[in-house]
Specification:
Radius of gyration: 20 Å
Number of helices: 9
Distance between the termini: 27 Å
Order of helices and strands: EHEEHEHEEHEEHEEEEHEEHEHHE
Structural class: alpha/beta
CATH class of the domain at 2-165 and 194-224: Alpha Beta
CATH topology of the domain at 2-165 and 194-224: Rossmann fold
Strand order of the largest sheet: 3-2-1-4-5-7-13
Number of strands: 16
Largest sheet: 7 strands, parallel
Oligomer: single chain
CATH architecture of the domain at 2-165 and 194-224: 3-Layer(aba) Sandwich
Length: 283
């Protein structure tokens, strides 16, 4: 099939492109920059998704069987504008342009969302759990999920747990590092977190191409939990995490209560919330 992949030049996008081509598909890779991936079967298109006309023209010009929408503003390191408006433009407005093209040309779409769209929720979480996002990233992804359901008739949503590769672990290091590579922290005896290896993430997206599109939401994660105490021990054995701050759980719970009073529902309280009550999801 001809698969359109947005964000094809990104870290995850490059793996997705390779995985799809290895399965015999042709990939129309859409990004705002040139991809490092150079493979037969990849047709790269430099395009800004904020241009609705350009997106519609792309669908008019190309035969597209399915779409994987991966492009997003997620990591803010080195990003000058991290306002809500910036997140909304990239993660909602651009997504809407793509969704409207998918609807017009009757193309099924897989939207890659995030567990951050769930937000501050305790207890077991399912795809039907009411969303309570806190961060601009989570809010924008939750809003885009809603717009997808309104616009498209054939879709799936995959909410990814924090993604990591063997070389890039910034999303999971927040769970056990105050400052990489020397200052680590441990709450109580350690916490266990749901995470997602890039290989599993890519496998889920590549497999979706051959699955029925059934308008359902799925939470994508590794089978094995990340154990912060075990990881820190491994880091120390390799010469990192030289300084380990051990925090009694009761102290962190008290601190959470205090900052919740001061800052309310905010990114600050959300970060501590996630450390104390990690996601436990099914579905």
């Amino acid at each position: 099939m001809n698969i359109l992949v947005t964000g094809s030049a990104g870290m995850i996008g490059g793996y997705v492109v390779k995985g799809l081509i290895e399965k015999g598909h042709t990939v129309i890779g859409v990004d705002r920059r040139v991809s490092d991936v150079k493979l037969p079967g990849l047709h790269q298109v430099i395009l800004d998704l904020s241009s609705k006309a350009a997106v519609m023209q792309l669908f008019d010009d190309k035969k597209i069987d399915r779409v994987i929408h991966l492009a997003a503003l997620a990591h803010t390191s080195g990003v000058a504008d991290v306002s809500w408006e910036a997140f909304k433009k990239v993660n909602v407005d651009c997504a809407v342009n793509l969704f409207e093209a998918c609807a017009k040309f009757n193309v099924p779409v897989l939207f890659i969302s995030t567990v951050d769209a769930i937000g501050m929720v305790k207890g077991m979480i399912t795809p039907e759990t009411e969303l309570n996002p806190i961060s601009n990233y989570g809010k924008s992804k939750a809003m885009a999920e809603g717009r997808l359901k309104e616009i498209c008739t054939t879709w799936n949503i995959y909410r990814f747990s924090p993604v990591y590769t063997e070389d890039v672990k910034r999303d999971i290091q927040k769970r056990y590092y105050l400052k990489y590579p020397n200052w680590a922290y441990l709450i109580g005896g350690g916490q266990q977190f749901e995470v997602l290896n890039v290989t599993a993430a890519v496998g889920a997206m590549v497999d979706w191409v051959d699955l029925p599109v059934d308008n359902t939401i799925h939470i994508i994660k590794d089978e094995e939990l990340l154990d912060s105490a075990k990881v820190i021990a491994e880091e120390r054995a390799e010469g990192r995490a030289k300084h380990l701050i051990r925090l009694p759980r009761w102290l962190v719970v008290c601190g959470y209560g205090l900052i919740r009073v001061v800052f309310g529902r905010s990114n600050k309280t959300y970060l501590v919330f996630k450390a104390l009550w990690p996601f436990r999801t099914v579905g």
